[in-house]
């Protein structure tokens, strides 16, 4: 597995009260968080209308959790 990107020295997980919270989300996790079908999330990536994402390979896509939550707040949740 390739290393996850680093954003200003932020680690890949954060600890909060003995709970590891991932800072990166998979498309499936984002679809659950936003209440959207995977197909719609994929279409949003193509149209560049959804949360920012990182493409490692054609089959490996990650989202920064903070970007997903910011996009959700700005858009009023799922569309």
Order of helices and strands: EEEHHEEH
The low-pLDDT segments are none
Strand content: 15-25%
Overall SS class: alpha+beta
Helical content, roughly?
25-40%
Distinct helical segment count: 3
What spatial order of strands do you see in the largest sheet?
3-5-4
Estimate the global geometry from the Cα principal axes: globular
Number of strands: 5
The major beta sheet can be summarized as: 3 strands, antiparallel
Terminal CA distance: 33 Å
Oligomer: single chain
What does it look like?
- It contains three helices and five strands.
- The strands form two sheets. The chain has a three-stranded antiparallel sheet with strand order 3-5-4.
- By secondary structure, the protein is of the alpha+beta class.
Key attributes of the depicted protein:
single chain, 79 residues, alpha+beta, three-stranded antiparallel beta sheet, two-stranded antiparallel ribbon, 3 helices, 5 strands, 37% helix, 24% strand
What is the topology?
Blueprint: E1 13-16, E2 19-22, E3 24-25, H1 27-34, H2 38-47, E4 54-57, E5 60-64, H3 65-75
Antiparallel strand pairs: 1-2, 3-5, 4-5
């Amino acid at each position: 597995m390739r290393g996850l990107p680093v954003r200003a020295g932020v680690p890949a997980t954060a600890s909060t009260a003995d709970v590891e919270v991932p800072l990166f989300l998979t498309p499936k996790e984002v679809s659950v968080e936003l209440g959207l079908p995977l197909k719609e999330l994929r279409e949003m990536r193509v149209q560049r209308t959804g949360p920012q994402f990182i493409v490692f390979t054609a089959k490996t896509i990650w989202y920064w959790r903070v970007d997903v939550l910011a996009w959700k707040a700005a858009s009023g949740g799922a569309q």
